[in-house]
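Hi Y.,

Following your request, here is the sequence exactly as I used it, all 135 residues.
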Amino acid sequence: MIVDDDEDTREVLSHLLTQAGFQPWPVESGRECLRVVDKVNPAVIVLDLMMPEVDGFEVCRALKANSKTSHIPIVVLTARDDFEARSQAMRVGVSDFIVKPASKDRLIARLTEQIQLAEALERAEASLKRLKKGS
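Below is the corresponding structure, written out as tokens. Let me know if you'd prefer a different format.
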């Protein structure tokens, strides 16, 4: 899922991610993201921080507080490159932080890494549950 209020950014990211084999779901606001995320169940969320009404920090807080969405990795893609933004993003549960402009290769690699980490964690949790049932 791509969450960004800038239409050009959504279009460029959608194109890049489609070329890389992803199936992007672009949304134009934090509010829309929170409304549809349960239906879409994305493997990863690319999130802008600076959006009107509901900013990226609020979106991340809400997603991490919801048991249905807390497992989804969130990669911030933002023009903000300051310590406060990075620090606050990590406190609200962001998985990775990328500053715009980012190269296509770097973005794809970081998103793929976050998806693989989430899948590995899911497998480990499933194995732990099986082990607990067996004891």
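The chain has one domain: 2-134.

Thanks again,
Q.
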